[in-house]
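agent: user wants the structure for DUF2975 domain-containing protein from Pseudoduganella rivuli. delegating to structure tool.
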Amino acid sequence: MSIKTFRFFLLLFVLLQATYFGLSWFYPHAIPMPGFRMAFWPDGLTMEAAHALPSAQRWTGALASLPTLVLLVYASWRLDGLLRAFQARDLFAVAAIGHVRAFAGAALGALLLAILEQPLRGLLWRHVLGDHGAALQVGVSSEALLMMVACGLFYLFGGVLQEGRRLAEENEGFI
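agent: tool returned. relaying tokens verbatim.
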């Protein structure tokens, strides 16, 4: 796959994430499609529970999950910057190293915020909105743990690029 194609899919990913966010919080209904049914709802809720949310809970839930989406968009923007640097063959440029490290940090941050979103939402609903039946739940999946490892690997890759840059500058000094 070319970098240009990957950048297209990255843009598509961001648009789909934003669409998912909007539909899951503000339209948690089944959408009939030819041959199948598509439905969106927030993590930790069923479609029925999301549909039955009062307006205040819907908005506070969306506001609690918005930082995760914003950080994910930022991580994607930094990944796109890295891909643009790779297209320009600037593998060891300071900007490319900054992009890879910022992407790794932002992706890890978005992942951690996604994990903390459900208990934060429960705390808001319970203590701010007075819904004492709101559950406080935390869930970490094996996929989330794998993504944490991948983020760490990307951060280490940034260190490899930094060392490559240092060696290239050192070799230029000898010539």
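agent: one observation worth passing along. Helices lie at 3-26, 47-51, 55-87, 94-128, 142-174.
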